[in-house]
Amino acid sequence: MRQGETGIATAMNTLFRTAGCVIGPTIASVFLAEYVSPLVIQTPRGPIPGPLLPNVTVFTYILLTALAISLVGGACDAIRYEPSGRDRAV
Predict the structure, then answer these.
(1) N or C: which end of the chain has fewer CB within 10 A?
(2) Residue 77 dihedral angles phi and psi, to the nearest 5°
(3) How many structural domains compose the chain?
């Protein structure tokens, strides 16, 4: 990378990292809010419905979604790969 491109590369890195830090938790919170199960508390008087908690399925969905997004990003990077000056054939 040329010295003049360092600032642009740093800015783009910061931009994409910030966007990822915003989008990732948003997607995860949508899944966490959608897939919930009630916690039932057993008492001598009978069951009492407790709070709604995320079930096990949601964590699998979050993992698979993150994996899919990572694979798409990796594929886009592999398609768009341009060798640097040292790697180019002369």
Answers:
(1) C
(2) -70, -40
(3) 1
